[in-house]
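Re-run with default settings, no changes from the original entry. Doing this only to confirm the output is reproducible before filing.
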Amino acid sequence: LDRVGRVMAPVMVEGQGPFRFIVDTGATRSALSPGLVARLGLPTDRSPPVRMQGVTGEAVVPTVHVAWLQAGSLVLRDQDLPVLQPQVFAQADGILGVEGMSGNLLDIDFVADRVTISRSRAQRAGPGFLVVPVQRRAGGLLIVDARIGRNPHPAIQDERLPLTL
């Protein structure tokens, strides 16, 4: 966890790193901080800008081309990744979104302070694990079945929000 309680993962970008990325299952795309883009010397004028939407609004932001990005067994190749404003990151170097997570297992061990991303082998969860069925919708958002009183409602599952069952 970083100083504000966000889950962080080590990520390699084009063979350099590891860099500290926020694990954000509510983000459909991964993104880089301007500081990391400067450290890596990635040009921001060769890739098209994109429109990003978040809970606080939307903005058109520059992108940079990344030949490869790796976090455990998750590998993204030849991606134009958005570069977000520095205040989004605090001390982080980037955001690791859900793109590329398909077929991978994200294991966050808060006691051991460890994040592991490995290939999913369709095995059952071990003792002490809770399995929460989710559906991927709207560009990668994780939707869970929830209830408000007696009424069923879909809810977005995000690791920053506690999930109470």
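The CA atoms of residues 28 and 140 lie 5 Å apart. The two ends are 23 Å apart (CA to CA).
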